[in-house]
From TrEMBL:
Keyword Nucleotide-binding: no
Keywords for the protein's UniProt record, in alphabetical order: Heme, Iron, Membrane, Metal-binding, Monooxygenase, Oxidoreductase, Transmembrane, Transmembrane helix
Name listed for the protein in its UniProt record: Cyp4g15_2 protein
Species classification: Eukaryota, Metazoa, Ecdysozoa, Arthropoda, Hexapoda
Protein's UniProt keywords contain Hydrolase: no
GO MF term list: heme binding; iron ion binding; monooxygenase activity; oxidoreductase activity, acting on paired donors, with incorporation or reduction of molecular oxygen
Length: 241
């Protein structure tokens, strides 16, 4: 009995290994045709879009990945990659992230045509990552819901309303100029300065809260928003998060 024990165990192990290999082979045998069928369906169902995309200038991509490697790295790295491409392909750049087509517009006049359209207003699916933070308001809503919210807020930006805040705009502009003057003649990034000023103007015009009553509240809020945007950027570029 004891002599046959190792043989039985060895036979069981061999049988398990064979079963595992058989399952793997079956899985691969099913996976490969499924991928081929999906690729054929993708090409046929999006044939018109693919034909139009081929007419747009853009760098050659890798099979399956496309130009996904252009979007690997920090926000600054990705921006520099796309910015570099803008010099290679003039006003329009076509990139692929896997099966997803992305078109970058360089000319502000082209951007204006898209943003002023009342038809092509559906936002990118990536906006869904903002939903837990911003809800379903004007910033991330789309379609008819966006139209309804935009109609409600439009009177707020009437020219007469904006004119009533001219003195406030001027005061905040002078304030930020004085802050930037301390940088001297050197080159510097104005982003943080302008972000703080924008928030201060919003607080005073929309909520009646002045920076004289809440010191640095605008700056702290602006930096918190930027931090949240950095987190969402990581979520965009790291699919495993």
């Amino acid at each position: 009995m004891s002599a046959t024990g190792p043989e039985v165990v060895a036979g069981t192990v061999d049988a398990s290994a064979a079963a595992g290999m058989s399952a793997s082979s079956t899985f691969l045998a099913l996976l490969v045709p499924a991928l081929v069928l999906w690729f054929i369906y993708f090409r046929i169902s999006r044939r018109h879009m693919l034909e139009l995309a081929e007419k747009l200038p853009g760098p050659r991509g890798y099979p399956i990945l496309g130009n996904a490697l252009e979007f690997v790295g920090s926000s600054d790295t990705i921006f520099r990659n796309i910015y570099k491409r803008s010099f290679e392909f003039d006003q329009v750049i076509r990139l692929w992230i896997g099966p997803k087509l992305i078109v970058f517009l360089v000319d502000p006049r082209d951007v204006e045509v898209i943003l002023s359209s009342h038809v092509y207003i559906d936002k990118s699916p990536e906006y869904r990552f903002f939903q837990p933070w911003l809800g379903n308001g004007l910033l991330i809503s789309t379609g008819q819901k966006w139209r309804a919210h935009r109609k409600l807020i439009a009177p707020t930006f009437h020219l007469n309303v904006l004119k009533s805040f001219i003195d406030l705009f001027n005061a905040n502009s002078r304030c930020v100029v004085e802050k930037m003057r301390k940088e001297g003649e050197k080159e510097f990034d104005i982003h943080d300065y302008m972000s703080e000023t924008t928030v201060e103007i919003l607080l005073e015009t929309a909520m009646g809260v002045s920076k004289t009553t809440q010191d640095r509240s605008g700056f702290e809020y602006a930096m918190a928003v930027m931090k949240m945007c950095d987190i969402l950027h990581l979520r965009h570029t790291r699919v495993w998060l």
